Amino acid sequence: MTRLWNEPADFADEMIDGFVAANERYVRRVPGGVVRSTVSPAGQVAVVVGGGSGHYPAFGGLVGPGLAHGAAMGNLFASPSTQQVYSVAKAAEGGGGVFFSYGNYAGDVLNFNAAQERLRAEGIACETVTVTDDIVSATPDEKHKRRGIAGDLTVFRIAGAAAAAGADLAEVTRLARLANERTRSFGVAFTGCTLPGAEKPLFTVPEGRMAIGLGIHGEPGIDETGIPTADGLAELLVARLLGEVPDGVQVAGARVVPILNGLGSLKYEEMFVVYRRIAQLLTDAGLELVDPHVGEYCTSFDMAGTSLTLFWLDDELAALWDAPVDTPAYRRGSVAPQQRLVVADTAATVAEAIEPGDEASQSVARTVLAAVRTIVATVDEHVDELGRIDAIAGDGDHGIGMQRGSHAALAAATAAVDAGAGARTTLAHAADAWADKAGGTSGALWGVILNAVAAKLGDTGRPDPAAIAAGVAAGSRGVTDYGKAEVGDKTLVDALVPFSTTLTGAVDAGASLTDAWRTAADAATRAAALTADLLPRMGRARTHGQNSVGTPDPGAISLALIVTAVGETLAAETSLKENAHG
User: Fold this and answer.
1) Which of the residues 23, 185, 208, 474 could staple to 328 if both were Cys, CB 3.0 to 4.6 A apart?
2) How far apart are CA 500 and CA 243, in angstroms?
């Protein structure tokens, strides 16, 4: 369990602050994560990695000469937001473009891609290679859907070495893609992990049992078995990985980097016992072992478990693997002394000026604020249940992420209303704060939804029901365009699309906004319940699809709960206004 924290919601930020304070010779703090505190050559490709916190030394611990130039660091097990990724990339970029690499998770893909498009729109060249090393998370013919686990290290290191050698963006990308194609990983766990402030772990493994094929965000394994001996575990790990050798590789005589990775609380001594047998098995298979790694490279907070990664070298990759690296958590070879970067104090920020809305729009903004306050109360009431649902086949943090996002949205909306903002500005500020603080998939998608509605509200006058329905419809389209999920994929789309279509239909038929909203909320609630029968086809739950049958999707449930509660708030606000004018 996790024992030391102040406020759980502040844990990631305080952790990053402490990490930077302890490693100022390597890194400096920027909004959204860390970048090198040393000078990089002008025109060098900036390698930017990242993901949720809780995986140290990934990702901040791998920033330094020979490896990454920056790391976007999200909240615990939540992808960094688009703004965080953009901020880190802007700080790291030095004229050679930005190369992004991260584990292949839905939230990371959404937010890194959005930041990449923003940078490209500003004329900054960007490329991406997502890490897909986990062999249990998809079949070989769909390996592009696999998630990234400890194989992050091999891809990041090859990209960093290529950038340090002066390769251009296209070449860095080619080499990183080659490294990813030649990396395979497989993991097991003996216990789940517990987030700061949580009373229970995200998943549990029965006493004396071992989960096979776990994820690094608290996702349970795809199978379970008795705990073998150390030699038995070594034989399982090696057999699974030698059962899927990259294309074009002949095992006998091949060079391979073995990486035995601890997931958080497995002792190094235990891993050495396991590695002793791994080394024997790989040697007996005719492999040449190069630079073996035994240690913690990508953890899952306090999870007791381990994974084995095999990185199959060729001459090109072998030369890059030998390049020196010097980062807070990972060092190889000898790196020349680095010049410290002198930067201006960026602590002071200028508050964005808010243009006041007219009187009518300010009145609508107060209704928006009431609705956001209702969202917060609804999420707070159901946070534990949403986490429980998410833990069955996902990573258990949906409730926590929704809580972070909605509370940030409330603070932003309150500040906007206090400054005299109209409805559009109030909801837009709430949307951006939600997306930024929640991170992850749900944070990004709720930012899309709320910003789409905000655009239809305006900062003058009062929007009619058709405008609000149009905003919800735009949000629904934005989510499907942005997240690529469709009805039937077992995501919040399964509740959002029925809500939007029902709302539009009722408004078009002449219903009042209050009546139309309630009818649409009922449709969303029914649709969310029906997701229990679906197999997930998107997101982290996809790997554990059968586990989730019988349990509804947490994103769909939270959306249904929210729109139902907001409907009651709209009814109450309408009644108050009618009484005031009566």
Assistant:
1) 23
2) 47
Q: Which long-range contacts (CB under 8 A, 24 or more apart) does 266-274 make?
A: 266/190, 266/304, 266/305, 266/306, 268/294, 268/295, 270/230, 271/295, 271/306, 273/230, 274/230, 274/231, 274/233, 274/234, 274/237, 274/306
Q: What is the CATH architecture of 359-581? A: Alpha Horseshoe (1.25)
H helix or E strand, kind and range, residue 321: helix 315-321
444/436 Cα distance (integer angstroms): 8
For 287-320, give one letter per residue: b (16+ CB within 10 A) or e: beeeeebbebbbbbbbbbbbbbbbbbbeeebeeb
Q: How far apart are the first and last CA of the chain?
A: 58
CATH topology of domain 8-332: Rossmann fold (3.40.50)
The CATH 1.25.40.340 domain(s) of the chain lie at 359-581
Helical H runs in 23-150? Answer: 82-92, 106-121
CB 341 within 8 A of CB 37: yes
Tell me the C-alpha distance between 244 and 275, whole Å: 20
The segment(s) of the chain belonging to CATH 3.40.50.10440 are 8-332
Residue 217 annotated to the active site: yes
The predicted-structure confidence for 105-163, as pLDDT tens digits, reads as follows: 988 999 999 999 999 999 999 999 999 999 999 999 999 999 999 999 999 999 999 99
Count other C-beta atoms under 10 Å from residue 268's C-beta. Answer: 13
pLDDT class for 345, splitting at 50, 70, 90?
low
Active-site option among 217, 382, 407, 544 = 217
How many contiguous H segments (helices) and E segments (strands) does the chain have? 17, 15
Q: Which residues pair with residue 260 across a beta bridge? A: 294, 308
Bridge pairing between strands 70-76 and 98-103? unpaired
